[in-house]
Design goal:
Helices cover 27% and strands 27% of the residues. It has 504 residues and is of the alpha/beta class. The chain has a domain at 401-500: GMP Synthetase, Chain A, domain 3, CATH 3.30.300. The strands form six sheets. A nine-stranded mixed β-sheet has the order 2-1-10-9-11-12-13-14-15, sandwiched between helices. The longest helix is centred in the first third of the chain and has 17 residues, at 48-64.
């Protein structure tokens, strides 16, 4: 049987559409309900009415400032309410926001400015300065009191916002998304979150990250729930107490946050229904420890900046052990080889059909690079997966991270799951390294909470993996390299190891 889904088609968005109007569709009905609570030393709270007023006033302010529909607006605002308010304010007015990390350097900001050519940059105090013109956060807040702008309606396929990829496979790319992207996210509500209007979603990510903007803010508001976001002063060890204090019903974070959080004491969480994980593969032992400590399950999702998440487990359809889950209802997904979908049980490239409303318009000003990501009607993710007879998909890693040992293809995820099962290993990475021209071995890099004898570690791994999958070298590290969105950078480990050992 071929590894391809054939779902009922997902309904198309209205022909006249605005992403911000969709997100704020419940404002009149829920005007006094808390829409957003930013938690920490810089706490802020907004009702739905206050949120909508600030967003639509911001749209008016941007237009009065001289911006016009189609202009690009660079946002570097950190985990403050100004970020999502300005993001949706721009989209309200037909202006294209580009949210970026608060941690970028001047060099990185200048490169982004040269690429997207923003009409204006809005930047919080203390962040890396880039080219003018710039509007400060204080002036921005004055927009909130202005009369509300009308939503700029139009074709749902027109550009709405630009986000940058994490750069885990090379240079970060500017990805252009359409207004319809928010419409497609409804497939996640049942297919991943189990999201309800009475939920209180606490997301531990940065506002500029598409995972936080979508899962932590846009989706809760689109259904009428409450979004809870920690500010930059909150550390992972403080999150368990905040989950209890704010009666969070769903918790969302990247695996790296779960790893650090699980080292802390976790109080009783009677309101919590489950956790969500995305951004990179979740180690199976994190899920086990979380279940032991909280009595709840973590539902994982697979996705990417170009299409958000589209494979996941959910409360009503949990992922089978070891898998990332199932294509969400309405998603057409395939596992492709060079000649099209492969048979069940065979590895191939995870792909999503070009008709998916959540798929990007393309990479900014790069039509050839955009076209190169397609194989016929399929968008190629660059990730390797295996679909079983029930349609569940096992993630095997990035195509360029796959390792070759003695002619066998080995997934780094499989090796890393065994390594992190060791009681003294906090996190691990596996990658193929070249020891001499034409000869590659598997290397294991790990962060330990205690000293581990190499021989004992080898025996631990050898008891759990076939011989050809076992690392030939083990390297203890203080930390593992991660990108801006906390994704593991295996290629950095590979490059550093080969440089140190005379390989390039």
């Amino acid at each position: 049987m071929l590894s391809v889904t054939d779902p009922a088609p997902f309904p198309a968005p209205p022909m006249s559409f605005n992403m911000a109007a969709h997100v704020l569709q419940h404002v009149e009905r829920l005007e006094d309900k808390t829409a957003l609570s930013i938690i920490g030393l810089r706490a802020q709270t907004f009702t739905y009415s206050q949120l909508a007023k600030a967003i639509r006033g911001t749209a008016t302010g941007l237009l009065q400032h001289g911006l016009i529909p189609g202009d690009r607006l660079l946002l570097q605002l950190g985990n403050r309410a100004e970020c999502p308010i300005t993001y949706l304010g721009a989209i309200t007015a037909g202006i294209i926001p580009v949210p970026v990390s608060s941690q970028l350097t001047v060099h990185e900001i200048r490169n982004i400015v040269a690429e997207i050519k923003p009409a204006l940059t809005i930047r919080a105090d203390g962040m890396a300065e880039g080219p003018e013109p710039v509007l400060g956060a204080e002036a921005l807040r004055a927009f909130w009191a202005l009369p509300p702008a009308e939503y700029t309606m139009g074709d749902p396929d027109r550009p709405a916002y630009i986000i940058y990829t994490s750069g885990t496979s090379g240079k970060p790319r500017a990805v252009v998304h359409a207004h319809r992207a928010i419409w497609a996210r409804q497939m996640m509500w049942d297919g991943w979150y189990g999201l309800r209007e009475d939920d209180r979603m606490l997301h531990a990510g940065a506002f500029n990250w598409t995972y936080t903007l979508g899962t932590g803010l846009m989706d809760p508001w689109s259904i009428g729930a409450t979004a809870l976001i920690p500010d930059e002063t909150v550390t992972p060890d403080q999150l368990p107490a905040l989950l209890a204090e704010h009666q969070a019903t769903i918790f969302a974070a990247a695996p790296g946050i779960y790893r650090r959080l699980l080292r802390a004491n976790i109080p009783a969480l009677p309101y919590l229904r489950h956790g969500l994980s995305a951004g990179e593969k979740l180690a199976e032992d994190y899920r086990t420890v979380w279940r032991t400590k909280t009595g709840t399950t973590i539902h994982e999702a697979f996705g990417m900046s170009e299409c958000s998440t589209f494979i996941s487990g959910s409360p009503t359809k949990p992922a089978p052990a070891g898998t990332s889950g199932f294509p969400q209802p309405g998603r057409m997904v395939a596992i492709l080889g060079s000649d099209g979908p492969v048979e069940h049980g065979q590895p191939g490239t995870i792909a999503i059909h070009k008709s998916d409303p959540g798929l990007m318009i393309g990479y900014l000003d790069a039509p050839e690079d955009t076209a190169a990501r397609f194989q016929g009607d399929w968008f190629l993710t660059g990730d390797i997966g295996i679909m079983d007879d029930q349609g569940a998909i096992t993630y095997a890693g990035r195509a360029d991270d796959m390792m070759n040992a003695g002619g066998y293809r080995v997934s780094p995820i499989e090796v890393e799951n065994v390594l992190t099962a060791h009681p003294a290993i906090a996190e691990a990475a596996a990658c193929g390294v070249q020891v001499r021209k034409g000869t590659t071995i598997i290397a294991a890099f790990y962060v330990t909470t205690d000293m581990i004898d190499d021989g004992d570690l080898h025996d631990f791994v050898a008891a759990r993996l076939a011989g050809y999958k076992c690392p030939r070298v083990y390297i203890a590290k203080d930390t593992l390299p991660r990108g801006a969105n906390n994704k593991l950078l295996r290629r950095v480990l590979r490059t550093e190891w080969e440089a140190e050992h005379g390989q390039t």
